[in-house]
Write a structure and sequence with these properties.
alpha/beta, 5-stranded mixed β-sheet, 10 helices, globular
Amino acid sequence: MPGADPITTVIGPLSTSIEGIKIFMKVILDSKPWILEPALIPLPWNSSLHISPEKPLRIGVLWHDNVVMPHPPITRALQSVVSRLKTIPNVSTVDWNPYLHDEAWAIISSLYYPDAGDEDAAIMAESGEPWRPLTKWIIKENPCVRRLNMKEFYYWQEEREAYRKEYARVWNDTATSRNPETDELEGMVDVILCPAGPGVAPAHNTAKYWAYTSQWNLLDYPALVFPVDKVDVGLDKMAKGYEPMSGIDDDHWRLYDVERFAGLPISLQLVGRRFEDEKVVAIFEYLKKQIGLPFADFP
């Protein structure tokens, strides 16, 4: 709705290479879209940002979000990347503790459709096409989706801003020191390495856990998804005796079938702070070269 932007919509470019992502971002921002769209912040793309071997990098590693444990291929990919990161002299890793990621989903799913999905439903009605299962799930079956009055809308906006401030504090608390001259925080985590989803490409109509990406949508943080490896039947079997962390986790693990997913790409993502898109890209380029990503051949 015009003027109501609880969750900012952005263009998410897809490319078979990091060079394609950089070209896309540069071309779009070089056109100065903020001249036509006043709501946009005038930030040109900085192509000069590069990471040198002399620059210390701290990578926060989010193994899971305390709600849904990723399937074995995702965890194996994280372990493989982290083990290689530890061989790079200027890189250090630290575990990232998820901060109330379940609450983040409650906030963002309440703000996706403040009109209860009426606008989307009207467009689909005009098309004459039936509702697809996942569209029906997120709009009609999502208990957080309802028509918000002004007071409720303001409430969830305030919750969003409060959560963003709290997460910024969590990130700031990763600092290792303060500069005695400027009092600026130093040694903070530069980017977060985490799953791009709870599993590899899901079967049709089963992708009902979005929180590994919606988390960063809520915070308005840039994220770069990249391929790491492929599912291996011999390495990615489900461990016996796993106790789900939640009912959602239990539902998610029932979807896992290593034979069905064999050979599918495994992806992870790097996440940065707001407006640090170029930094995320530069760090990925550096790490990709240092550890030889991806670890499997992709067409």
